[in-house]
């Protein structure tokens, strides 16, 4: 049997014998004097990369040690020349997006500013396998190759065997990162289940932290929060509120004076202002990308009652949610066909509808002449009758002057002030129509106890989620969640009726108090109109029906301008 050496020798002879006579091989001169001269004169430029993942004092010490170690290490090598240390402090290694030092180092490598990068370990360079291999291969593919030396693992990326080692070790680092993330998430959920909420106050308007980390009210900022809730209740929309705050140069949580409708709505919807905390509203699905998404049944949420001092009472907060929902679902005819966005620009915006066709009524400015002179006046007119919309039917309702509606409303209020007992009785009757029966109230209490008990079991089981892959456990957990959702649906229907009752009762009390303090009316009270009235209907012959938020209904009578002055 032929030896390996003999086989190689034979193959070599075979290749030479098959070579054309016209071809001459020019062997590489590994001892080229010019080549050796350049490499002897030029030292290898080496940069270092250091990273720590938090800003804590212990980690900062680790960062400083990394920097001093690499500088000293490079300077000891006679054939090496120290270039600089690139660094990132307080950033994660699972993604390179926010690592400015790392990204600058890669750009400098592309420009050929150094020959090697030395770093403590693969996990310091990148915990993401794809990122690690991508950047190592990118650096190797440059016209002027740049190598990476991983000090702890003893790997040089320019070594032909490095790719396999890098793949294995960086995969371990990536999995380690996932494990750490899972453990941190488990710890956070455990704290939530024990009623310990994590609420950063850096950009949280109205609250600060004391020395023990407890939330305390910031009195000055709390005034802004109260103003926002107060103005919403008074009838203003989020756009108007934002414009007012910007105009008055009121500071936001980020210490600027530019307010938006969205920022106002976020404050109005935030349950933390009434002392509660809903935890885990958003979740990180992938620990490598760190992208957070809204928690849509990805993980359990934890609602912690009475977690901190309230700025807004719970009843007021619930009232505001009801009012926002009312505006969102604003219907403009009995069948709910016509929708518009809420507007608080004019007193009657989104408030009146045509009694003949059910279409929304809108505001118009009309120009007319008197004694040869032009003048303008404001009216409210059906959108279909004014030919602002098209439909399969016609409407011939007449417009009504704005000041006529205002005066008719004022006269109606004066009459209502004389019959407060009747108003209260009518209001209570309307509230009874939506109120829960005794049995329904008892069922509501029972459902709450059942849901709380199931959710406690779910929380206990969720804490063991990362410790077991038992299919029986998974099936039990899914079954309990489904059972909780069934009870929750029934509970929410009853709760919604109860909230409607509370909403109407509060509005009835507001109406009674307003009427009791009503002496005389000289001008139209637009803010209170928005607070008290649900909507109005412009009927034939200038008849106007006002429907109050407490369920009370009253008719007022307008007139044609010029006929009854």
Question: How would you describe the overall organization of this protein?
Answer:
The structure is a single chain. It is elongated and about 115 Å long. α13 (420-434) runs antiparallel to α15 and α14 crosses α15 (471-516). By secondary structure, the protein is of the alpha/beta class. The protein contains 16 helices and 18 strands. It starts with a helix and ends in an 8-residue tail after the last strand.
What is the total number of structural domains? 3
Shape: elongated
> Strand order of the main beta sheet, please?
2-1-3-4-5
Q: What percentage of residues falls in helices of 4 or more residues?
A: 40-55%
List low-pLDDT spans. 1-17, 29-39, 331-335
SS element count, helices: 16
C-alpha Rg, in Å? Answer: 37 Å
Computed structural class: alpha/beta
State which percent range the strand residues make up. 15-25%
Largest sheet: 5 strands, mixed
How widely separated are the two ends? 127 Å
- The total of beta strands comes to 18
Overall pLDDT, averaged?
A: 79
SSE diagram, text form:
Elements: H1 4-17, H2 33-41, E1 44-52, H3 57-76, E2 80-89, H4 100-110, E3 116-119, H5 122-125, H6 129-140, E4 147-150, E5 155-156, H7 162-193, E6 207-209, E7 215-217, H8 219-233, H9 238-247, H10 261-269, E8 277-279, E9 282-284, E10 292-294, E11 302-304, H11 314-328, E12 352-354, E13 361-370, E14 373-382, E15 400-401, H12 402-416, H13 420-434, H14 438-462, H15 471-516, H16 526-532, E16 533-538, E17 543-548, E18 553-557
Parallel strand pairs: 1-2, 1-3, 3-4, 12-16
Antiparallel strand pairs: 4-5, 6-7, 8-11, 9-10, 13-14, 14-15, 16-17, 17-18
Helix pairs in contact: 9-10, 13-15, 14-15
């Amino acid at each position: 049997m032929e030896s390996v050496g003999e086989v190689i020798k034979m193959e070599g002879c075979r290749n030479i014998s098959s070579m054309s006579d016209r071809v001459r091989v020019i062997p590489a001169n590994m001892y080229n004097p010019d080549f050796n001269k350049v490499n002897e004169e030029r030292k290898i430029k080496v940069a270092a990369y250091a990273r720590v993942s938090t800003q804590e004092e212990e980690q900062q010490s680790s960062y400083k040690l990394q920097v001093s170690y690499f500088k000293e290490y490079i300077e000891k090598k006679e054939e090496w020349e120290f270039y600089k240390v690139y660094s990132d402090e307080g950033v994660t290694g699972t993604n390179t997006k926010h690592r400015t030092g790392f990204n600058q180092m890669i750009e400098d490598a592309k420009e050929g500013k150094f020959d090697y990068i030395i770093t403590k370990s693969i996990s310091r360079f990148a915990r993401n396998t794809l990122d690690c291999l991508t950047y190592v291969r990118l650096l190797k593919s440059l016209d002027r190759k740049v190598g990476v030396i991983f000090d702890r693992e003893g790997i040089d990326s320019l070594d032909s065997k490095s790719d396999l080692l890098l793949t294995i070790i960086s995969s371990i680092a990536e999995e380690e990162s996932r494990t750490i993330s899972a453990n941190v998430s488990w710890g956070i959920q455990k704290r939530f289940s024990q009623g310990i909420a994590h609420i950063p106050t850096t950009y949280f308007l109205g609250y600060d932290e004391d020395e023990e980390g407890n939330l305390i009210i910031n009195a000055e900022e709390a005034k802004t929060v109260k103003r926002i809730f107060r103005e919403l209740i008074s009838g203003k929309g989020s756009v108007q509120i934002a414009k007012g705050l910007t105009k008055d140069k009121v500071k936001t949580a980020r210490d600027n004076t530019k307010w938006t409708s969205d920022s106002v709505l976020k404050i109005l919807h935030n349950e933390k202002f009434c002392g509660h905390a809903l935890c885990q509203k958003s979740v990180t699905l992938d620990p490598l990308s760190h992208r957070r998404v809204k928690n849509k049944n990805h993980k359990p949420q934890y609602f912690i009652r009475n977690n901190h001092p309230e700025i807004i009472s719970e009843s007021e907060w619930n009232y505001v949610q009801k009012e926002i929902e009312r505006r969102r679902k604003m219907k403009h005819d009995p069948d709910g066909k016509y929708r518009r966005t809420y507007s608080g620009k004019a007193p009657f915006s989104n408030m009146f509808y045509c009694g003949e066709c059910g279409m929304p009524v809108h505001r118009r400015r009309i120009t007319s002449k008197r004694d040869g002179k032009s003048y303008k006046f404001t009216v409210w007119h059906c959108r279909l009758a004014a030919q602002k919309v098209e439909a399969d039917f016609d409407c011939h309702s007449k417009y009504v002057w704005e000041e006529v509606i205002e005066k008719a409303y004022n006269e109606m209020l004066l009459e209502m002030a004389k019959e407060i007992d009747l108003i209260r009785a009518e209001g209570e009757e309307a509230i009874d129509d939506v109120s829960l029966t005794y049995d329904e109230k008892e069922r509501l209490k029972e459902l709450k106890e059942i849901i709380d008990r199931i959710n406690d079991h779910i929380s206990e089981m969720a804490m063991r989620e990362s410790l077991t892959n038992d299919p029986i456990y998974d099936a039990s957990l899914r079954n309990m969640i489904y059972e909780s959702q069934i009870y929750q649906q029934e509970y929410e229907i009853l709760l919604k009726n109860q909230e409607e009752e509370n909403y109407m009762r509060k509005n009835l009390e507001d109406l009674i108090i307003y009427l009791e303090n009503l002496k005389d009316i000289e001008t139209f009270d637009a803010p209170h109109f928005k607070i008290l009235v649900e909507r109005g209907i412009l009927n034939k012959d200038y008849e106007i029906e006002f429907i109050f938020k407490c369920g009370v209904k009253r008719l007022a009578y307008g007139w044609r301008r010029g006929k009854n002055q």
